[in-house]
Every structure is written in C-alpha cells, then in structure tokens.
Amino acid sequence: MTRFAFELHATDGRARTGKITMQRGEIRTPAFMPVGTAATVKAMKPESVREIGADIILGNTYHLMLRPGAERMARLGGLHNFMKWDRPVLTDSGGYQVMSLSELRKLTEKGVEFRSHIDGSKHMLTPERSMEIQRLLGSDIVMCFDECPRADRPRDEIAASMELSMRWAKRSRDGFDSGEEHAARSALFGIQQGALDEGLRRVSAQKLVDIGFDGYAVGGLAVGEGQEAMFGVLDYAPEMLPKDHPRYLMGVGKPDDLVGAVERGIDMFDCVLPTRSGRNGQAFTWNGPINLRNARFAEDQEPLDPTSNCSASRDYSKAYLHHLHKSHEILGAMLLTEHNLAFYQALMQRMRDAIAQGSFTAFAGEFRSSYFGK
Amino acid sequence: MTRFAFELHATDGRARTGKITMQRGEIRTPAFMPVGTAATVKAMKPESVREIGADIILGNTYHLMLRPGAERMARLGGLHNFMKWDRPVLTDSGGYQVMSLSELRKLTEKGVEFRSHIDGSKHMLTPERSMEIQRLLGSDIVMCFDECPRADRPRDEIAASMELSMRWAKRSRDGFDSGEEHAARSALFGIQQGALDEGLRRVSAQKLVDIGFDGYAVGGLAVGEGQEAMFGVLDYAPEMLPKDHPRYLMGVGKPDDLVGAVERGIDMFDCVLPTRSGRNGQAFTWNGPINLRNARFAEDQEPLDPTSNCSASRDYSKAYLHHLHKSHEILGAMLLTEHNLAFYQALMQRMRDAIAQGSFTAFAGEFRSSYFGK
Question: Which positions of A are catalytic?
C-alpha cells in the first residue's frame, strides 16, 4: 500500500492541482484542512466535516498532549479512533502553540520547557518528544518541531532561530524514522523558516532538501506581517521547494489569501478562521464576509447560498441565523461553522477545477471582483 | 383534512397508547416533546430531532415574543418555516415563564404586565394576546393562558388562582376561536390547576370540560413538590379529564417520572431535562444517569449504548465524551443532547410497545429495577 505519493495533474502558471495518496485516503490539492484542535472540529460532527468535502483535518499536538494526553490517546487507540475520523490527519509539532499559549517558556538547544495553560503543569517539548507524541496520536502527516519567531525581530535573531529550526528538523527526521511501524505508513514534512528574508529562506530550503522530506511547509508567515508582505515571500519561497512534493502554507488564511497563495504555488492550507468566525457570527460568501449579528439581517429571508450543496448554507434564512447568533444558541455556531467550512471547500474545488482547465487567472480575477465587490 | 383527532389503540391498566392526527403529521402517544425554547432544540439540527424519533416539539411563547418577536415571526412565515421543522409544534402560553423569568410582574384580572429579562422592555400578556402570539407563531397545539402558583401556597390562594385560570381559559377559548384560518387547522388545550388539592382539581377539570378543549393538561406540577406528591395528584387528576382526549403533563420530567405518569394515564410530556443535562455532561442510560465529566470515564472505551440506532449513543466512547465535556467543546453538548433525546424517544417507544402488548406493569418493573440498579 502506498505510504505517500504526490501526483500533479495540471499546472497553470505557478498554480498546481493534483492529489496526495496515503493509506487512510486521498487528499485533493490545493487542499484546505479544517482545524480540529482538541480532537474535534469545533461544533461539527466528523461525518459532516467529510460531507462538506474535507479530505484531511489538522490536530494540535500542544492541546492533545495536555488533554487528554498522548499516552492516554495511544491507549484509547489513537486520535482517529477517538474522534471517529478515519481519513488522514496532519498534526502540527506543538512548537507554535507552546510559544503563543503556554506560560514560563524556556528555550534551549534541547527544546522548550513550559507550563500548561490549563493547569500549570510542567512539560518539555523537544524534536524527539514531538515526534513521539505525533506517533502516539497516530498522525498521518507529521510536522517537524520548529521555532517560529516574530517576523519583526532583527535579522541575526531570525537567522539564529532558522538555524536552530534546521537542526531540529534533522533531529525530527531521525526521531520520526525511529518509529518503525508508524514511519512505514505516515509522512514527515519539513518547515522552511527565515521570515521575510529571501536569503535565509533559500538557506532554509536547501537544508531541508538536504535532509529530505515528504512535503515542505512555508512556516513563519501569517504571524501578523500582513498580506502584502506574505505574498512578497510567496513570490519566491515556494519555488525554492521541490516541485514534486506538496507545499503547505501553515495557518493561512482568508479566502483571498488562499487564492493568492495558490496562484504562487501553494498546495495545502489550514486555518481556524472559518470555524472561529462561524462561532462569532461571521459568514464567508462569494460577495465577501458578512456578520449575521448585524441588525440588517433580522428579516432577511434569503439563505447564505441558495446554490450550495450544504444545507446550512442553503436551507436556513439569514434572519434565522441572525436570531440564533443574537440568542447565543449553539445551533448558530453549528450552522455557520458548517457553512464556512463548506464555503472554503467549495473555493478549493473551484480553484482545482480552474487550474485543471487552465483558467486560474480568470477565476482569480472573477473571485476577487465578486469578493471585494469591485 | 383532519384538524385534530385522537385515537386510542390500546390501554393497559390506566396506561394508554394511541395517536394524535393533525395536518402537519401524526403524534404517537405517549409522546415526549423536545423543548425548542428559542426556535431551536438547543444544540440539535431539526433533521436530527426528527431522526431520533420526535413527532412534535415545544416552543416557548415567552421567549419567542421577546426575540425575535411574534409579529416579526409572522412576517418571516411563522415558526415552522423559520426553524425548518415541518411537523407539529406545541406552544406554551407564556404564563409560566413570565412568572419564573421576567421582572416587575403585575398580575391583574386582565393579565400580567412584566419587563423582559433580555432588555427590560415592558410587555403585557393576556389570554387574548397569548392566543394572538401563538397564532402569529403558527402553533399547531395552542395552550391556554393560565397562572401557575407555587404548590405550597395557602389553599385560598391556590383556589383563587385556579378560578382566575379558569376565567382565563374561557377567554383563551374565545381568543383562539376568533383566529379563523388558524383555528381551523390547529388545536387548543386547557390546563387543569388546583395544586395538590383533589377538590380544586375536580372543580378545575369540570370547568375546563364545560368550556371544551381538544386536549387537557395537568398543570401546576413539577414545580418543586417532589415525585411522591406529584404521583399522589396523578393518582386521581388524569381520571378527572375526558378519556377520549389526550392528557398532557407539563414540564415533566425524569425518565422514572415519565414511566410513573404513563402508568397513571398521561399521554404527553415536555421537559428541558434531556437537553439541559446533555449540555452539562449528564447522560441518561437504562442503568440510570451518569455524569461524563467524572474522571472514571477518562479511559472508558464503551459507548453509552452499543445497541442504539442513534450514532451519538453508539459510535463514540465515554472517554471521548468525557474529553469533550472536560474541554467545554460544543460537540460534547451536541452528542449528549442527541443521546439523551434519543434515549427519551426510545423510552417512549418501549412504553408504547409494552402498552400495546399488555405488558406495561412488567415493563415498568424491569425499567425501575435496571434504572435504579436494584
């Protein structure tokens, strides 16, 4: 059985479409991965996540190692069995959330020591432990343990951090490879760092390629640098990574971010935006985002998208969604999460189709014109 | 088309099984009605409410008149269209929640003046206005506007309150009958009052029968009097109401309350317990209630009910439900609400089957022995 294969079906400019084949299923690219932080895509049943078109979801190592715990998850048969999702799961390494969520961090060559944001308990994450945790979870696509500094730090800090991440990438590779059964059926992705510096990005890419990975992520973006700066990096960074492996832009993004990144050669994305926004009353539509809490929707009998295959988008009026969100009803979060994820999956499908037909530039133009109302 | 018909298929002791036929569908009795307070059965999609076996749901006049508002709901095509539930809906009159939730109440012969618990706005509910609101909502089974005093008030207060409710029942009847189109396709239920006093219950029943209703509710119970006192009233109160009309015990109850009330001749129930408990981590099972937040479930790989038709009951481990509830995940509320409502519907189905087979006494004994672990 194929462990990991990436096939390109068509390219259009720098945009690519294809598929990844793994033991738990195929992943059509460009792919958007809904985020299932704590072993659940928030407010969605797993069968609904599949129904709206997701081929793969993301799980967070940091959250899962703290609750329910990696060893406990292994005793319970792994993440897939726990949450009843039998298709591929990509897990992050925990590095990013240690830096953004935990307390009392201490960063050394060995790894990061920190205290849990839940109960203050002390933990240590190293490349080796991150690989072990992702193995205990039963992850299909494992991410290297890295450090992600703020993009506005001085160049020498960015460079030192990137060099550390590259040493950790090698240790991640070795740690992953030591997990025999798991390594034989799952994949490991490296993560390019270097912030907004083209030279550092090139060094990082070369070091990763020298180690060798199944896929390559562009890390260190979507950390507050803005879309223009991000697109600036994406004008060169994906091209530094091997063409015959998937390229994953971590933590991105808004619908227009996805279109611009696919245009620049990215194949995979994850982001909490559609799920988090859905809980906050924001809906993504082909005519731009709207907030259902706004009083102008109180008697709006139209659904969010009458042409959608998703019942949350098609069957309920904006007036009803407005009422549910004003009333803080759980069903409001459920329906808008489902709508937003269905919208994201529909956007990915339209991009895949446009690339296959060689009409991606026209699609992107039409999308922007409709989305930004120009 | 039949406006309202009640057919008894079998009786077993005082327990009865049959069905109500209305324009929007049939209601198998004994029936449990999930509560959809604010135009949503909390944490459930309407199609899931139907899938787990509910024939009818309950809507709350008090909540809906305040938000989104009765006239607005009418402009939006009524409650059924608003929330995408096309089967029967029973609406309460608003009287009970005015007394329990609102501020600055002023009770007169005319009705009740109060301030909204949401925004402090001033409102008046009278029998006539309650009938008008339930008509604007498009209710299938309309409840009379009544007053429900605490069962521990002095007898003269209980008597005066019951007499007021009976005068309001006549005004409700007249108000309902004046709604031509709506009255031609919906039903009106009277509500017996009299707290724990058999004499007052008899007077109340006679006054209601003199007015004439499609169904009769036993009101004024489940307000803190305890199961023994409630069963004491149910030993005589249902028999005072016409045999050929459904009898509805409002706001009840725990699974063992339902069994004991069916045993005493009740046909319909509503209660927030299965939905509210589900959000709080409590699951009902044939072996009694359990709380999934308890640490003993952290590694329990068994589902709540491996034999259930409901995937929430059958497909997820208690360990996963424990994790979701400890993590305050919306999916935890979703799955446990669905499980609990499925359990309640399964209990009603087992009771209907047992009555049809003439084995209700045996069923009730086995249920209690299993539920209370005796």
Answer: 92, 270
